[in-house]
Amino acid sequence: MCENILTTVTGTRDLLPDEMAGWHVIEDKARSIFSLYGFQEIRTPVFEATELFARGIGGDTDIVGKEMYTFLDQGGKSLSLRPEATASVVRAFIQHSMHRDAGLTRLYYIGPMFRHEKKQKGRWRQFYQIGAEALGSESVAVEFEILEMLLHFLARLEVQSQLMLNSVGCPACRPPFVKKLQEELRSAGNSLCEDCRRRTDLNPLRVLDCKIPECQATIERMPSITDHLCAECAAHFRRLLGYLDHAAISYSVVPRLVRGLDYYVRTAFEIVSGGLGAQNALVGGGRYDGLSEVLGGPRAPGFGFALGVDRLAMILPDHVGREAAYSPDLFLAYIGDAALSKALGIARALRSAGWKCHMEYTGGSLKSQMRLANRLNARHVLIIGDAELERKRYLLKRMADSRQWELEDGEIAAVLSAGANP
Ligand code: HAM
Question: With contact defined as beta carbons under 8 Å apart, do 354 and 422 qualify?
């Protein structure tokens, strides 16, 4: 059968220029706000050894078991498109011996991730994350600082969000809890969906996260990890809540919040937002103190998050998204070859001074060029025709109030400056 080569593959899409404006606002704000907290960018490859994700995220998780795009390269090595970037960042941290650098290693990333999930609103097979990871400290203050940074970022974008937190315990208190949970889930047997029955054996904590309505009554009756934390984990969690209370940051403790990746210990969190529909998780994150060692590296306690950019873009208020929309400072409308040559010269000089200049080369009439200037929301239009060429003075029109000037080349920039800086 002949595949349709003119359509994107299911679960992927083109991000067109209109949509990209909002994405630029998101990415620019992330870079500027994260740098206030000392985070620096890292870029890791989009594919890595499959084993990195299997060991890091956990072989029994849905992400590794069902959702990875895995392939063999020419040498027979199993590679996978990254389903997330935490394992990759920790791999890079170990590979480049970043633990030798003084202080906490604070890294952020922006890029595509790949998961073969069932397509639905807000869920893509190629999606984008902005994430941040801090490696090298067990301190609750690191958790607080990152949560504060994240909420600062979302507030700047005027996105409403709700922080949900839990503690998933540590290697000391979680195994006895998981055993108890597993026993109770087994005795609940047929009241659970097929996936939950499978997870009861493989990864019982994940049952708590099941969204299927028929499972909810049983899940409600299950013990919660929050009531089974060891003294250290309980104190750690209380300290974090204390920091948040002190800063008047609102949150809810959700004892059934368990995350779909195995590396978490102690604090796990999600940020959800209304308006997203069923896939309402905007951010997921938590602490992963043992991940570096699981991958064969030194001890390097970590804490971080990843935010779904596709989802954030869906709920970005229009006026915020428009901040980066393309609109030229000057549209140069011309008639005839001599005028075109003059317009090119004026545009060159103005662009090198930092002004956004727009010209069309489709041979349209003055009227059609004016229509286009309007559609592009150009701030000014410069009209260059035979008469203007002869007088060496050009007609500049400010679109907002239709005010007009007759100017020489060298006077144009000053009028553009009256409204905004280049
Ligand atoms: P995650 O919860 O799997 O965590 O993903 C984080 C966010 O990525 C989600 O809250 C969601 O916004 C977005 N996301 C995930 N899957 C999709 C999808 N198929 N389509 C659209 N958006 C999606 C992680 O990835 C961890 N690495 C987070 C982390 C960093 N934990 C510690 N450090």
Answer: yes
DSSP-derived secondary structure for 210-264: ---HHHHHHHHHS--GGGG--HHHHHHHHHHHHHHHHTT---EE-TT---SSTT-
- Specify the higher pLDDT residue, 44 or 280: 44
Q: What φ, ψ does residue 71 adopt, rounded to 5°? A: -150, 160
Exposure string of 313-338, with b = 16+ CB inside 10 Å and e = fewer, is bbbbeeebbeeebeebbbbbbbbeee
DSSP H or E run through 341: helix 337-352
User: Ligand 1, residues 64, 84, 88: which to mutate, most atoms within 8 A of Cβ?
Assistant: 84
Task: State what percent of residues in the chain have pLDDT above 90.
Answer: 80
Average the pLDDT over 397-419 and give the result. Answer: 93
Report the distance separating Cα 131 and Cα 143, nearest Å. 14
Distances in Å between the alpha carbon of 37 and those of 100, 108, 201, 242, 304? 21, 11, 42, 21, 13
Helix/strand/coil for 299? coil
Task: Summarize the confidence of residues 183-212 as an average pLDDT.
Answer: 86
Per-residue confidence (pLDDT) for residue 151, from 0 to 100: 97
The C-alpha atoms of residue 83 and residue 69 are separated, in whole angstroms, by: 8
Q: Which of 66, 129, 143, 149 to mutate to test the pocket of ligand 1 (most atoms within 8 A of CB)?
A: 129
62: confidence class by pLDDT, cuts 50, 70, 90: confident
Residue 421 has pLDDT above 60, yes or no: no
Q: Which amino acid is at 235?
A: A
Q: Whose CA is nearest to atom 2 of ligand 1?
A: 284
pLDDT digits 0-9 by tens, 117-170: 998 999 999 999 999 999 999 999 999 999 999 999 999 999 999 999 999 999
DSSP state, 407?
A: E
Residue reference for tokens 């059968």: 1
The ligand 1 atom at the shortest distance from the C-alpha of residue 270 is: 10
Rounded CA-CA distance 250/163 in Å is 7
Q: What pLDDT, in 10s, does the model give residues 267-303? A: 999 999 988 887 789 999 999 999 999 999 999 999 9
* Nearest one of 340, 321, 281, 360 to 17, comparing CA atoms: 321
Among 77, 140, 150, CA closest to 108: 150
CA neighbor of 226 nearest in space, from 181, 161, 196:
181
> Whose C-alpha lies nearest to ligand 1, atom 31?
285
Quick one: which of 91, 51, 41 has its CA closest to 298? 91
CB 396 within 8 A of CB 380: yes
